[in-house]
Protein backbone atom coordinates (compact mmCIF):
# COMPACT_ATOMS: atom_id res chain seq x y z
CA UNK A 1 0.00 0.00 0.00
CA UNK A 2 1.46 3.35 -0.87
CA UNK A 3 0.97 6.22 1.58
CA UNK A 4 1.01 8.78 -1.19
CA UNK A 5 -2.32 7.49 -2.49
CA UNK A 6 -4.72 10.34 -3.17
CA UNK A 7 -8.43 10.32 -3.84
CA UNK A 8 -8.19 11.40 -7.43
CA UNK A 9 -6.38 8.68 -9.34
CA UNK A 10 -3.41 9.64 -11.44
CA UNK A 11 -3.60 8.86 -15.14
CA UNK A 12 -1.57 6.22 -16.93
CA UNK A 13 -1.08 6.13 -20.69
CA UNK A 14 0.40 2.90 -22.05
CA UNK A 15 1.38 2.41 -25.66
CA UNK A 16 2.09 -1.16 -26.67
CA UNK A 17 4.25 -2.24 -29.60
CA UNK A 18 5.05 -5.67 -30.99
CA UNK A 19 3.63 -9.00 -30.05
CA UNK A 20 0.64 -10.23 -28.06
CA UNK A 21 2.84 -10.95 -25.09
CA UNK A 22 3.44 -7.23 -24.79
CA UNK A 23 -0.34 -6.67 -24.84
CA UNK A 24 -0.67 -9.07 -21.92
CA UNK A 25 2.25 -7.50 -20.06
CA UNK A 26 0.78 -4.01 -20.50
CA UNK A 27 -2.48 -5.16 -18.88
CA UNK A 28 -0.61 -6.67 -15.96
CA UNK A 29 1.53 -3.55 -15.50
CA UNK A 30 -1.53 -1.30 -15.54
CA UNK A 31 -3.23 -3.47 -12.92
CA UNK A 32 -0.13 -3.39 -10.71
CA UNK A 33 0.11 0.40 -10.53
CA UNK A 34 -2.11 1.37 -7.64
CA UNK A 35 -3.55 4.85 -7.67
CA UNK A 36 -3.59 5.05 -11.47
CA UNK A 37 -6.35 4.71 -13.99
CA UNK A 38 -5.70 4.28 -17.68
CA UNK A 39 -6.26 7.02 -20.22
CA UNK A 40 -6.25 6.89 -24.03
CA UNK A 41 -4.86 10.38 -24.20
CA UNK A 42 -1.12 10.95 -23.64
CA UNK A 43 -1.74 14.66 -22.95
CA UNK A 44 -3.78 13.82 -19.83
CA UNK A 45 -1.26 11.40 -18.43
CA UNK A 46 0.81 11.63 -15.26
CA UNK A 47 2.76 8.60 -16.38
CA UNK A 48 3.51 7.42 -19.91
CA UNK A 49 4.77 3.88 -20.45
CA UNK A 50 5.97 2.66 -23.82
CA UNK A 51 6.00 -1.12 -23.95
CA UNK A 52 8.45 -1.69 -26.74
CA UNK A 53 9.52 -4.25 -29.34
CA UNK A 54 13.05 -5.01 -30.52
CA UNK A 55 12.31 -7.73 -33.05
CA UNK A 56 13.19 -5.65 -36.13
CA UNK A 57 15.17 -2.46 -36.51
CA UNK A 58 12.13 -0.42 -37.52
CA UNK A 59 10.26 -1.44 -34.37
CA UNK A 60 13.15 -0.37 -32.15
CA UNK A 61 13.63 2.97 -33.92
CA UNK A 62 9.94 3.83 -33.53
CA UNK A 63 10.50 4.05 -29.78
CA UNK A 64 12.97 6.88 -30.07
CA UNK A 65 10.81 8.88 -32.43
CA UNK A 66 7.82 8.39 -30.12
CA UNK A 67 9.91 9.51 -27.13
CA UNK A 68 10.90 12.60 -29.12
CA UNK A 69 7.20 13.38 -29.61
CA UNK A 70 6.45 12.84 -25.91
CA UNK A 71 9.22 15.09 -24.62
CA UNK A 72 7.34 18.40 -25.16
CA UNK A 73 4.50 17.06 -22.97
CA UNK A 74 6.99 16.92 -20.17
CA UNK A 75 7.98 20.53 -20.72
CA UNK A 76 4.31 21.48 -20.27
CA UNK A 77 3.84 19.20 -17.28
CA UNK A 78 7.04 18.75 -15.29
CA UNK A 79 5.43 16.10 -13.04
CA UNK A 80 4.87 13.79 -15.98
CA UNK A 81 6.97 10.63 -15.76
CA UNK A 82 8.03 8.69 -18.83
CA UNK A 83 8.95 5.02 -18.73
CA UNK A 84 10.19 2.52 -21.29
CA UNK A 85 9.34 -1.15 -20.79
CA UNK A 86 9.66 -4.22 -23.00
CA UNK A 87 12.38 -5.57 -25.21
CA UNK A 88 14.03 -2.28 -26.22
CA UNK A 89 14.36 -1.52 -22.50
CA UNK A 90 16.00 -4.90 -22.03
CA UNK A 91 18.33 -4.57 -25.00
CA UNK A 92 19.39 -0.95 -24.57
CA UNK A 93 19.03 -0.28 -20.84
CA UNK A 94 20.76 2.90 -19.73
CA UNK A 95 21.47 3.90 -23.30
CA UNK A 96 17.81 4.94 -23.57
CA UNK A 97 18.17 7.58 -20.87
CA UNK A 98 21.36 8.81 -22.51
CA UNK A 99 19.69 9.14 -25.91
CA UNK A 100 16.49 10.61 -24.46
CA UNK A 101 17.00 12.32 -21.07
CA UNK A 102 13.23 12.85 -20.69
CA UNK A 103 12.98 9.15 -19.77
CA UNK A 104 12.66 8.54 -16.01
CA UNK A 105 12.25 4.80 -15.90
CA UNK A 106 13.52 1.79 -17.84
CA UNK A 107 12.16 -1.65 -17.00
CA UNK A 108 12.93 -4.95 -18.74
CA UNK A 109 10.27 -7.64 -19.27
CA UNK A 110 11.49 -9.80 -16.38
CA UNK A 111 11.25 -7.01 -13.79
CA UNK A 112 7.67 -5.81 -14.14
CA UNK A 113 6.80 -6.89 -10.60
CA UNK A 114 9.19 -4.20 -9.42
CA UNK A 115 7.34 -1.47 -11.29
CA UNK A 116 5.36 -0.16 -8.28
CA UNK A 117 8.59 0.45 -6.33
CA UNK A 118 10.18 2.00 -9.37
CA UNK A 119 7.20 4.31 -9.76
CA UNK A 120 7.62 5.50 -6.17
CA UNK A 121 11.26 6.14 -6.84
CA UNK A 122 10.63 8.28 -9.91
CA UNK A 123 7.86 10.17 -8.07
CA UNK A 124 10.54 11.26 -5.62
CA UNK A 125 12.50 12.76 -8.47
CA UNK A 126 15.04 10.01 -9.12
CA UNK A 127 15.40 7.73 -12.13
CA UNK A 128 14.87 3.98 -12.03
CA UNK A 129 16.42 1.24 -14.13
CA UNK A 130 15.91 -2.52 -13.86
CA UNK A 131 16.86 -4.99 -16.57
CA UNK A 132 17.69 -7.95 -14.34
CA UNK A 133 16.66 -11.52 -14.98
CA UNK A 134 15.60 -12.31 -11.40
CA UNK A 135 15.10 -15.84 -10.18
CA UNK A 136 11.56 -15.30 -8.94
CA UNK A 137 8.46 -15.72 -11.10
CA UNK A 138 7.49 -12.17 -11.95
CA UNK A 139 3.84 -13.08 -12.44
CA UNK A 140 3.61 -14.56 -8.95
CA UNK A 141 5.08 -11.34 -7.57
CA UNK A 142 3.22 -8.93 -9.80
CA UNK A 143 0.67 -7.34 -7.51
CA UNK A 144 -2.75 -7.24 -9.04
CA UNK A 145 -5.18 -4.87 -7.41
CA UNK A 146 -7.53 -7.81 -6.98
CA UNK A 147 -9.75 -5.96 -9.44
CA UNK A 148 -12.88 -7.70 -10.61
CA UNK A 149 -13.43 -5.24 -13.43
CA UNK A 150 -15.13 -6.71 -16.51
CA UNK A 151 -12.86 -7.80 -19.29
CA UNK A 152 -13.38 -8.11 -23.02
CA UNK A 153 -14.49 -11.67 -23.97
CA UNK A 154 -11.16 -12.62 -25.60
CA UNK A 155 -8.02 -12.40 -23.49
CA UNK A 156 -4.35 -13.31 -23.68
CA UNK A 157 -2.73 -15.39 -20.98
CA UNK A 158 1.04 -15.82 -20.88
CA UNK A 159 2.04 -19.37 -19.94
CA UNK A 160 5.61 -19.51 -21.14
CA UNK A 161 8.24 -16.96 -21.86
CA UNK A 162 11.67 -16.83 -23.42
CA UNK A 163 13.35 -19.09 -25.93
CA UNK A 164 16.24 -21.54 -26.02
CA UNK A 165 16.15 -22.12 -29.77
CA UNK A 166 18.54 -19.37 -30.88
CA UNK A 167 17.43 -18.93 -34.47
CA UNK A 168 20.29 -17.04 -36.08
CA UNK A 169 18.19 -13.93 -36.85
CA UNK A 170 16.33 -13.51 -33.58
CA UNK A 171 16.82 -11.28 -30.51
CA UNK A 172 14.18 -12.96 -28.36
CA UNK A 173 16.57 -15.35 -26.51
CA UNK A 174 18.51 -12.25 -25.48
CA UNK A 175 15.64 -9.88 -24.64
CA UNK A 176 13.20 -12.35 -23.09
CA UNK A 177 15.81 -14.76 -21.77
CA UNK A 178 15.74 -18.52 -21.35
CA UNK A 179 12.56 -20.54 -21.70
CA UNK A 180 10.50 -20.51 -18.50
CA UNK A 181 7.00 -22.00 -18.02
CA UNK A 182 4.49 -20.80 -15.44
CA UNK A 183 3.12 -23.52 -13.15
CA UNK A 184 -0.08 -25.02 -14.58
CA UNK A 185 -2.11 -24.51 -11.37
CA UNK A 186 -1.48 -20.75 -11.51
CA UNK A 187 -2.39 -20.62 -15.18
CA UNK A 188 -5.64 -22.49 -14.53
CA UNK A 189 -6.48 -20.21 -11.59
CA UNK A 190 -5.84 -17.15 -13.71
CA UNK A 191 -8.08 -18.56 -16.45
CA UNK A 192 -10.86 -19.11 -13.88
CA UNK A 193 -10.50 -15.50 -12.69
CA UNK A 194 -10.65 -14.26 -16.25
CA UNK A 195 -13.85 -16.24 -16.83
CA UNK A 196 -15.38 -14.64 -13.70
CA UNK A 197 -14.58 -11.29 -15.26
CA UNK A 198 -16.43 -12.11 -18.49
CA UNK A 199 -13.72 -13.78 -20.57
CA UNK A 200 -14.90 -16.59 -22.89
CA UNK A 201 -11.77 -17.20 -24.95
CA UNK A 202 -8.14 -17.37 -23.88
CA UNK A 203 -5.11 -17.40 -26.11
CA UNK A 204 -2.22 -19.03 -24.30
CA UNK A 205 0.93 -17.13 -25.07
CA UNK A 206 4.57 -18.11 -25.23
CA UNK A 207 7.46 -17.41 -27.58
CA UNK A 208 7.66 -21.17 -27.80
CA UNK A 209 4.33 -22.07 -26.31
CA UNK A 210 4.25 -25.70 -27.40
CA UNK A 211 7.47 -26.33 -25.46
CA UNK A 212 5.41 -25.53 -22.33
CA UNK A 213 6.40 -27.67 -19.33
CA UNK A 214 4.79 -26.12 -16.26
CA UNK A 215 4.18 -29.50 -14.60
CA UNK A 216 2.11 -30.57 -17.60
CA UNK A 217 2.57 -30.49 -21.35
CA UNK A 218 0.69 -27.93 -23.39
CA UNK A 219 -1.74 -30.63 -24.56
CA UNK A 220 -2.49 -31.51 -20.93
CA UNK A 221 -2.90 -27.86 -20.02
CA UNK A 222 -5.31 -27.35 -22.91
CA UNK A 223 -7.40 -30.32 -21.79
CA UNK A 224 -7.39 -29.06 -18.19
CA UNK A 225 -8.52 -25.62 -19.30
CA UNK A 226 -11.24 -27.18 -21.44
CA UNK A 227 -12.81 -28.30 -18.14
CA UNK A 228 -13.12 -24.72 -16.86
CA UNK A 229 -16.83 -23.90 -16.88
CA UNK A 230 -17.67 -20.81 -18.87
CA UNK A 231 -14.47 -20.89 -20.88
CA UNK A 232 -15.65 -21.56 -24.43
CA UNK A 233 -12.55 -21.30 -26.55
CA UNK A 234 -8.83 -21.96 -26.27
CA UNK A 235 -6.03 -20.96 -28.61
CA UNK A 236 -2.27 -20.96 -28.28
CA UNK A 237 0.59 -19.14 -30.00
CA UNK A 238 3.47 -19.15 -31.09
CA UNK A 239 4.57 -22.71 -31.76
CA UNK A 240 7.79 -24.21 -33.06
CA UNK A 241 7.52 -27.13 -35.51
CA UNK A 242 9.96 -29.24 -33.47
CA UNK A 243 7.78 -29.06 -30.34
CA UNK A 244 4.54 -30.10 -32.01
CA UNK A 245 4.15 -33.46 -30.27
CA UNK A 246 1.64 -36.25 -31.04
CA UNK A 247 -0.51 -35.50 -28.01
CA UNK A 248 -0.89 -31.84 -28.95
CA UNK A 249 -1.88 -32.88 -32.46
CA UNK A 250 -4.37 -35.32 -30.91
CA UNK A 251 -5.80 -32.50 -28.77
CA UNK A 252 -6.82 -30.75 -31.98
CA UNK A 253 -8.92 -33.80 -32.81
CA UNK A 254 -10.42 -34.53 -29.38
CA UNK A 255 -10.80 -31.16 -27.62
CA UNK A 256 -13.75 -29.20 -28.98
CA UNK A 257 -12.83 -26.01 -27.18
CA UNK A 258 -9.43 -25.92 -28.88
CA UNK A 259 -10.00 -23.74 -31.92
CA UNK A 260 -9.02 -24.96 -35.41
CA UNK A 261 -6.30 -22.41 -35.96
CA UNK A 262 -2.56 -22.88 -35.70
CA UNK A 263 0.25 -20.36 -36.05
CA UNK A 264 3.27 -22.44 -36.98
CA UNK A 265 6.10 -20.33 -38.41
CA UNK A 266 8.59 -22.00 -40.75
CA UNK A 267 10.51 -18.83 -41.85
CA UNK A 268 11.83 -20.29 -45.13
CA UNK A 269 11.16 -23.09 -47.59
CA UNK A 270 14.83 -23.68 -48.38
CA UNK A 271 16.67 -26.36 -46.43
CA UNK A 272 19.97 -24.58 -46.98
CA UNK A 273 18.60 -21.38 -45.45
CA UNK A 274 16.77 -23.24 -42.67
CA UNK A 275 20.09 -24.75 -41.71
CA UNK A 276 21.81 -21.35 -41.76
CA UNK A 277 18.93 -20.06 -39.62
CA UNK A 278 19.62 -22.83 -37.08
CA UNK A 279 16.02 -24.00 -37.36
CA UNK A 280 16.80 -27.73 -37.00
CA UNK A 281 13.95 -28.85 -39.23
CA UNK A 282 13.56 -29.12 -42.99
CA UNK A 283 10.89 -27.87 -45.35
CA UNK A 284 9.86 -31.47 -45.94
CA UNK A 285 9.53 -32.31 -42.22
CA UNK A 286 7.39 -29.19 -41.78
CA UNK A 287 5.11 -30.19 -44.65
CA UNK A 288 4.74 -33.73 -43.28
CA UNK A 289 3.92 -32.27 -39.88
CA UNK A 290 1.14 -30.16 -41.37
CA UNK A 291 -0.17 -33.25 -43.12
CA UNK A 292 -0.47 -35.00 -39.74
CA UNK A 293 -2.12 -31.98 -38.14
CA UNK A 294 -4.63 -31.86 -40.99
CA UNK A 295 -5.37 -35.54 -40.55
CA UNK A 296 -6.30 -34.79 -36.94
CA UNK A 297 -8.26 -31.64 -37.76
CA UNK A 298 -8.97 -31.38 -41.51
CA UNK A 299 -10.41 -27.87 -41.37
CA UNK A 300 -7.53 -26.35 -39.38
CA UNK A 301 -6.55 -22.87 -40.51
CA UNK A 302 -2.78 -22.62 -40.88
CA UNK A 303 -0.83 -19.47 -40.23
CA UNK A 304 2.89 -18.79 -40.58
CA UNK A 305 5.77 -16.33 -40.50
CA UNK A 306 8.38 -15.86 -43.22
CA UNK A 307 11.63 -13.98 -43.48
CA UNK A 308 12.84 -13.00 -46.95
CA UNK A 309 16.33 -11.76 -47.75
CA UNK A 310 17.99 -13.71 -44.95
CA UNK A 311 21.80 -13.50 -45.47
CA UNK A 312 22.97 -15.56 -48.47
CA UNK A 313 19.41 -16.24 -49.69
CA UNK A 314 19.50 -16.85 -53.46
CA UNK A 315 16.65 -16.61 -55.93
CA UNK A 316 16.41 -20.44 -55.83
CA UNK A 317 16.13 -20.38 -52.02
CA UNK A 318 13.41 -17.79 -52.27
CA UNK A 319 11.60 -19.85 -54.91
CA UNK A 320 11.59 -22.77 -52.44
CA UNK A 321 9.77 -20.51 -49.97
CA UNK A 322 7.21 -19.60 -52.63
CA UNK A 323 6.71 -23.30 -53.41
CA UNK A 324 6.19 -24.13 -49.75
CA UNK A 325 3.61 -21.37 -49.37
CA UNK A 326 1.80 -22.68 -52.47
CA UNK A 327 1.75 -26.16 -51.00
CA UNK A 328 0.55 -25.25 -47.50
CA UNK A 329 -2.15 -22.78 -48.53
CA UNK A 330 -2.13 -20.46 -45.52
CA UNK A 331 -5.19 -18.77 -44.10
CA UNK A 332 -2.88 -16.12 -42.68
CA UNK A 333 0.81 -15.51 -43.19
CA UNK A 334 3.13 -12.77 -42.06
CA UNK A 335 6.22 -11.99 -44.07
CA UNK A 336 9.11 -9.77 -43.11
CA UNK A 337 12.20 -8.49 -44.76
CA UNK A 338 15.24 -9.70 -42.84
CA UNK A 339 16.39 -7.05 -40.40
CA UNK A 340 19.90 -7.19 -38.96
CA UNK A 341 19.81 -7.46 -35.19
CA UNK A 342 23.00 -6.56 -33.33
CA UNK A 343 24.46 -9.48 -31.39
CA UNK A 344 22.71 -12.24 -33.36
CA UNK A 345 24.77 -14.76 -35.39
CA UNK A 346 23.34 -13.74 -38.78
CA UNK A 347 24.26 -10.08 -38.30
CA UNK A 348 27.83 -10.57 -39.49
CA UNK A 349 26.98 -12.56 -42.64
CA UNK A 350 26.76 -11.48 -46.27
CA UNK A 351 23.58 -9.44 -46.58
CA UNK A 352 21.21 -9.72 -49.54
CA UNK A 353 20.90 -6.62 -51.73
CA UNK A 354 18.03 -4.61 -50.13
CA UNK A 355 16.35 -3.90 -53.48
CA UNK A 356 16.38 -7.61 -54.24
CA UNK A 357 14.93 -8.40 -50.80
CA UNK A 358 12.18 -5.79 -51.31
CA UNK A 359 11.26 -7.31 -54.62
CA UNK A 360 11.06 -10.82 -53.10
CA UNK A 361 8.95 -9.56 -50.24
CA UNK A 362 6.50 -8.07 -52.74
CA UNK A 363 6.22 -11.33 -54.65
CA UNK A 364 5.67 -13.32 -51.48
CA UNK A 365 3.09 -10.89 -50.16
CA UNK A 366 1.20 -11.01 -53.44
CA UNK A 367 1.02 -14.80 -53.20
CA UNK A 368 -0.01 -14.71 -49.53
CA UNK A 369 -2.72 -12.14 -50.16
CA UNK A 370 -4.12 -14.23 -53.01
CA UNK A 371 -4.25 -17.32 -50.76
CA UNK A 372 -5.84 -15.50 -47.85
CA UNK A 373 -8.40 -13.91 -50.07
CA UNK A 374 -9.36 -17.24 -51.68
CA UNK A 375 -9.76 -18.91 -48.30
CA UNK A 376 -11.80 -15.99 -47.04
CA UNK A 377 -14.08 -16.16 -50.09
CA UNK A 378 -14.51 -19.91 -49.59
CA UNK A 379 -16.18 -19.09 -46.26
CA UNK A 380 -19.20 -17.56 -48.00
CA UNK A 381 -22.25 -19.79 -47.50
CA UNK A 382 -20.61 -21.68 -44.65
CA UNK A 383 -21.97 -21.92 -41.12
CA UNK A 384 -19.49 -20.76 -38.50
CA UNK A 385 -19.64 -19.79 -34.87
CA UNK A 386 -18.72 -16.33 -33.70
CA UNK A 387 -17.65 -15.04 -30.30
CA UNK A 388 -19.29 -11.61 -30.12
CA UNK A 389 -16.74 -9.03 -28.96
CA UNK A 390 -18.33 -5.63 -29.55
CA UNK A 391 -20.95 -3.61 -31.35
CA UNK A 392 -20.30 -3.14 -35.07
CA UNK A 393 -20.19 0.19 -36.83
CA UNK A 394 -23.59 -0.17 -38.50
CA UNK A 395 -26.87 -0.09 -36.61
CA UNK A 396 -27.76 -3.53 -35.21
CA UNK A 397 -24.45 -5.05 -36.21
CA UNK A 398 -22.18 -6.95 -33.84
CA UNK A 399 -18.52 -7.79 -34.44
CA UNK A 400 -16.67 -10.90 -33.35
CA UNK A 401 -14.29 -13.68 -34.36
CA UNK A 402 -14.98 -17.00 -36.02
CA UNK A 403 -13.32 -20.19 -34.84
CA UNK A 404 -10.80 -19.59 -37.65
CA UNK A 405 -10.04 -16.12 -36.29
CA UNK A 406 -11.72 -14.23 -39.11
CA UNK A 407 -13.33 -10.96 -38.06
CA UNK A 408 -17.07 -11.37 -38.66
CA UNK A 409 -19.74 -8.65 -38.80
CA UNK A 410 -23.13 -10.05 -37.87
CA UNK A 411 -25.99 -8.07 -39.40
CA UNK A 412 -29.18 -7.55 -37.38
CA UNK A 413 -27.60 -9.44 -34.53
CA UNK A 414 -29.60 -10.75 -31.64
CA UNK A 415 -26.68 -11.37 -29.31
CA UNK A 416 -24.79 -9.97 -26.37
CA UNK A 417 -21.08 -9.36 -26.02
CA UNK A 418 -19.54 -12.64 -24.85
CA UNK A 419 -22.09 -14.89 -26.62
CA UNK A 420 -20.91 -17.56 -29.03
CA UNK A 421 -23.49 -17.62 -31.82
CA UNK A 422 -24.01 -19.69 -34.97
CA UNK A 423 -23.94 -17.64 -38.18
CA UNK A 424 -24.04 -18.12 -41.94
CA UNK A 425 -21.42 -16.17 -43.88
CA UNK A 426 -22.96 -13.94 -46.55
CA UNK A 427 -20.05 -11.93 -47.90
CA UNK A 428 -16.25 -11.78 -47.84
CA UNK A 429 -14.49 -8.44 -47.70
CA UNK A 430 -10.74 -7.71 -47.66
CA UNK A 431 -10.26 -7.93 -43.91
CA UNK A 432 -13.50 -9.37 -42.63
CA UNK A 433 -16.60 -11.42 -43.32
CA UNK A 434 -20.26 -10.49 -43.08
CA UNK A 435 -22.81 -12.92 -41.68
CA UNK A 436 -26.42 -13.44 -40.66
CA UNK A 437 -27.32 -15.14 -37.43
CA UNK A 438 -28.93 -18.57 -37.69
N1 LIG B 1 14.22 -9.86 -39.20
C1 LIG B 1 13.01 -10.04 -39.77
N2 LIG B 1 12.03 -10.74 -39.20
C2 LIG B 1 12.28 -11.32 -38.00
N3 LIG B 1 11.52 -12.07 -37.20
C3 LIG B 1 12.23 -12.37 -36.10
N4 LIG B 1 13.46 -11.82 -36.17
C4 LIG B 1 13.51 -11.16 -37.35
C5 LIG B 1 14.52 -10.41 -38.00
N5 LIG B 1 15.73 -10.23 -37.47
C6 LIG B 1 10.17 -12.50 -37.56
C7 LIG B 1 10.06 -14.02 -37.59
C8 LIG B 1 9.27 -14.32 -36.36
C9 LIG B 1 8.39 -13.09 -36.23
C10 LIG B 1 7.81 -12.84 -34.89
O1 LIG B 1 9.26 -12.04 -36.59
O2 LIG B 1 9.33 -14.39 -38.75
O3 LIG B 1 8.51 -15.51 -36.45
FE1 LIG C 1 8.97 -7.80 -29.82
FE2 LIG C 1 9.76 -10.29 -29.68
FE3 LIG C 1 9.93 -8.73 -27.59
FE4 LIG C 1 7.55 -9.57 -28.47
S1 LIG C 1 9.19 -10.80 -27.61
S2 LIG C 1 8.08 -7.52 -27.83
S3 LIG C 1 7.91 -9.54 -30.69
S4 LIG C 1 11.05 -8.49 -29.48
From TrEMBL:
GO CC, any one term: cytosol
Catalytic activity field: 2-thio-N(6)-dimethylallyladenosine(37) in tRNA + S-adenosyl-L-methionine = 2-methylsulfanyl-N(6)-dimethylallyladenosine(37) in tRNA + S-adenosyl-L-homocysteine + H(+); N(6)-dimethylallyladenosine(37) in tRNA + (sulfur carrier)-SH + AH2 + 2 S-adenosyl-L-methionine = 2-methylsulfanyl-N(6)-dimethylallyladenosine(37) in tRNA + (sulfur carrier)-H + 5'-deoxyadenosine + L-methionine + A + S-adenosyl-L-homocysteine + 2 H(+); N(6)-dimethylallyladenosine(37) in tRNA + (sulfur carrier)-SH + AH2 + S-adenosyl-L-methionine = 2-thio-N(6)-dimethylallyladenosine(37) in tRNA + (sulfur carrier)-H + 5'-deoxyadenosine + L-methionine + A + H(+)
Ranges of residues in domain TRAM: 377-438
Compartment list: Cytoplasm
UniProt-listed Enzyme Commission number(s): 2.8.4.3
Record keywords, A-Z: 4Fe-4S, Cytoplasm, Iron, Iron-sulfur, Metal-binding, S-adenosyl-L-methionine, Transferase, tRNA processing
Highest taxon in the source lineage: Bacteria
Top EC group: transferase
GO molecular function: 4 iron, 4 sulfur cluster binding; metal ion binding; tRNA-2-methylthio-N(6)-dimethylallyladenosine(37) synthase activity
Domain MTTase N-terminal: 10-124
Binding annotation for [4Fe-4S] cluster 1: 19, 53, 87
Keyword Iron recorded: yes
One Pfam family per UniProt: TRAM
Major location (coarse): cytoplasm
Residues that coordinate or bind [4Fe-4S] cluster 2: 163, 167, 170
Cofactor(s) recorded in Swiss-Prot or TrEMBL: [4Fe-4S] cluster
Family annotation (PROSITE patterns): MTTASE_N, MTTASE_RADICAL, RADICAL_SAM, TRAM
Domain Radical SAM core: 149-377
Cofactor: binding details: Binds 2 [4Fe-4S] clusters. One cluster is coordinated with 3 cysteines and an exchangeable S-adenosyl-L-methionine.
Family affiliation: Belongs to the methylthiotransferase family. MiaB subfamily.
Oligomer and partners: Monomer.
Function: Catalyzes the methylthiolation of N6-(dimethylallyl)adenosine (i(6)A), leading to the formation of 2-methylthio-N6-(dimethylallyl)adenosine (ms(2)i(6)A) at position 37 in tRNAs that read codons beginning with uridine.
Name assigned to this protein: tRNA-2-methylthio-N(6)-dimethylallyladenosine synthase
Gene name tied to this protein: miaB
